[in-house]
Write a structure and sequence with these properties.
Blueprint lengths: L4 E2 L2 E5 L42 H17 L3 E15 L2 E11 L11 E2 L6 H12 L3 E2 L3 E5 L5 H7 L4 E7 L4 E8 H12 L6 E5 L1 H15 L4 H4 L6 E8 L7 E3 L8 H10 L8 E3 L12 E2 L4
Parallel strand pairs: 5-10, 7-11
Antiparallel strand pairs: 1-4, 2-3, 3-4, 3-9, 4-11, 6-14, 7-10, 8-9, 12-13
């Protein structure tokens, strides 16, 4: 299997706590404004799903303006190329993930590629998120992908390295730590990660975000040359890679909250089948992916 993982150049906020935001599909009560009035935050740069169908053009234009304002005011800063090792506190213990990029050329919503969806997607929701993405300078929400590493070798190896601290803080929403994996070491980590795709990377959370990124990229690709397409920022999307064998990784069915057997998930990915749309969650809804880091997706 060809590598679908790429080393990104991430943006991180200077005031980390103000830039914590829920996932796009989180309930409205999690989207209440944070203290720090007057500052641009991730909540100003993301349009949650529950606002779909409102004053969409105005919302999208305001989001775009906020992204530019955050860049111009220096409220977010760009790191060197590298991965980010993220450690989150959950109800089931510490969950570690490696934030990297996925090459959307290696993903097909129909399946069979290096990355496979776990659920069907709602075309209207995918179209809405792609519409937001086409007007965005940056992306913040990211997909959570799983790999199979029974002995957790990859994360154990990373823990032994002296990684550069990026943030370490606690809020009512989450407790999270981020450590930077520099480019010279990230390439080695990338090769190690690819060993644990079995037989692919499977989506645990963010099926719609990934499908929307793919739809947007296909539209961009039609308007540029083959040479430009090789490294265009819209060709890639953020993803957090987690070990399905980690005890803190607990997929559940959205309606019942019942745990999903991990072997059943692996069988699902291998057979290239999907569950009904939005039927899967990665643990408690309040512990789903939170948007903090970002990356450029446009040359604009």
């Amino acid at each position: 299997m060809r590598s679908c993982v790429r080393v990104p150049r991430l943006f991180v906020p200077k005031d980390h706590e103000l830039w914590v935001a829920p996932a796009c599909d989180a309930p409205a009560d999690l989207w209440q404004p944070l203290e720090g009035e007057g500052n641009i935050t991730a909540r100003d740069c993301i349009i949650p799903d529950f606002l779909r169908g409102g004053a969409e053009e105005a919302q999208i234009e305001k989001m775009r303006e906020n992204m530019y304002a955050a860049l111009e005011k220096g409220e977010i800063e760009r790191l060197e190329r590298g991965f980010l090792l993220v450690t989150r506190e959950t109800s089931y213990g510490e969950r570690k993930g490696l934030l990297a990029c996925v090459d959307l050329e290696e993903f097909s919503p129909e399946g069979g590629g290096a990355v496979r969806l776990s659920t069907e997607t709602d075309p209207a929701l995918v179209a809405w998120r792609a519409r937001c993405r086409e007007s965005s300078v940056l992306e913040f929400p990211h997909t959570v992908l799983c790999y199979k590493d029974k002995r957790d070798r990859l994360m154990r190896d990373l823990e032994e390295e002296e990684l550069a601290p990026v943030y370490d803080f606690h809020t009512p929403l989450l407790s999270v730590k981020g450590e930077f994996v520099y480019d010279f070491f990230a390439e080695e980590v990338l090769h190690e990660l690819m060993k644990y795709a079995d037989p692919c990377f499977g989506v645990l959370d963010g099926n719609h975000s990934l499908a929307a990124a793919k739809l947007h990229w296909e539209r961009v690709k039609e308007k540029i040359s083959a040479g430009e397409a090789k490294n265009h920022p819209a060709r890639f999307t953020l993803a957090e890679f987690v070990n399905l064998c980690d005890p803190a990784v607990r997929p559940v069915y959205a309606e019942s909250g019942a745990p999903v057997k991990k072997d059943d998930l692996l069988a699902l990915f291998k057979s290239n089948k999907k569950l009904p749309a939005k039927s899967l969650l990665l643990g408690n809804v309040r512990e789903q992916r939170c948007c903090l880091e970002g990356r450029e997706i446009s040359y604009d």
